[in-house]
Amino acid sequence: MTHALHMPESPLLSRFAGQTVLVVGDLMLDHFVIGSVDRISPEAPVPVVRFARDEYRLGGAANVAANLQGLGSGVEIVGLVGGDPEGERLRKELSRAGIGTTGIVIDPARCTTRKTRVVTTRNQQVARVDYEADSEAAGAIAAALAAQIERLAGGAGAILLSDYLKGVVTREVAAAAIAGGRRHGIPVTVDPKVPHASYYQGATLITPNHHEAEAIAHMRVRNDDDAASCARKVGERTGCANVLITRGEHGMWLHTPAADTALPAEAREVSDVTGAGDTVIATLTLALAAGASLEDAARLANRAAGIVVGKFGPATLTVDELARG
Q: Residues 241, 256: contact at Cβ < 8 Å?
C-alpha cells in the first residue's frame, strides 16, 4: 500500500532551502580505518588488515546536521567537543559542510567522541573502538549549552534534539531547547534514548525506534494494534503528544491525538542502516519547519529512510533524491 503526499511535494521541498534548523545533541567523529584482508593473524584468530586509507565523517548529532545541510537547510549546532585534535577536526569538518559551529562548547575535561571502525575494502566491519566521555554535562558547561540554545533559537524554524547518551542532552539542556521552541513558536523534535524518557516533556514530536518504544512503554510490538498501543503509551510516559515509531522493515507508525497512521517501509535494498535514524529525524524536522503537516512530514521521512539505507555508512541525501523517491 502506498500513499501520495497530501501536500504537493515540489512546493514543500522547494521551501527546504529557506529554513534554518537548530540541532542540539551529541557530536561524534566517525573514523574509518580501511584496508584489505588476505590472511588470519598467527597471534590470534583475527583478520590482519593491511592499511589502505583513513576516512573521517560526521557522526551522531553532527551527521544529523549534515543530513539537514544536504537537504538545503541552514543549520546551527549546539554540542560539546573536547579540547583535543579530534574536536578541532570535527569543528573544521562541520564548517566545511556549511554548518554553523558558534554554538559548540569546548569542555577541556572530556575527549571528543570518536568511533574508529576498522573496515575492509569490501565494506565489512572488523572492529570498532570508541573514544568517549559520557558523563552528563553539569555546572558551567551545562549552563553554557543552555545559553547557546537561547541565543540561537530565535533564528531557527525548528529545534532538533539528537540524544546519543554522551552527556549533552541533560534534563536542563532538553528543557532549554523545549522552552526555546515554545517561546519562538517553533516545533521541537527528539531522537530519544530510553534512560532520558522523562527529559522530553513538552516536545512536539518524539521518534523512538521500535526497541526504544518497547522499552519506554514496557510492552512488545508484534503487529499494528501493538504499535498503536505502544505509541500511545510512549506519548503518555514522555509527555510528548506526537510519536513516530520507526519499525525497520515494517515501516513507521505515527501517533497523534487526532489519528494513528501506518507507513509501510519504502526500502528497495538494504546496504547499511547506520545513520538511518539521523536521516529520518532530519527530514521530518525540516519538513515541519517548512510547514508540512505531521503526516506529510512522516511520509517524507519514511521515503528518506528507504533511500539512505541503500548507502554505506552514515549517509546523507539530497532534495533531488527525495523528489525522485
A: yes
What is the distance between the alpha carbons of residues 52 and 36, in angstroms, rounded to a whole number?
A: 7
Exactly one of 30, 163, 191, 278 is catalytic; name it.
278
Residue 15: Cβ within 10 Å count = 17
Give the Cα separation of 278 and 93 in Å (integer): 17
β strands within 91-187, DSSP E: 100-106, 113-120, 125-131, 158-162
Domains of the chain: 10-28+59-107+135-318 (3.40.1190.20)
Q: What residue ranges in 14-90 does DSSP mark as E strands?
A: 20-25, 27-40, 47-60, 74-81
**Chain position carrying cell 522547494:** 14
Q: Provide the CA 311 distance to its chain's centre, in angstroms.
A: 16
Position 114 confidence tier, pLDDT thresholds 50, 70, 90: very high
Q: Which residue has the cell 494513528?
A: 260
Asked whether 97 and 107 are in contact (CB, 8 A), the reply is no
For the stretch 212-263, pLDDT in tens is: 999 999 999 999 999 999 999 999 999 999 999 999 888 999 999 999 999 9
Give catalytic status of residue 278 as yes or no: yes
Helix (H, G, I), strand (E, B) or coil at 258: coil
- The CA distance from 305 to 34, in Å, is 26
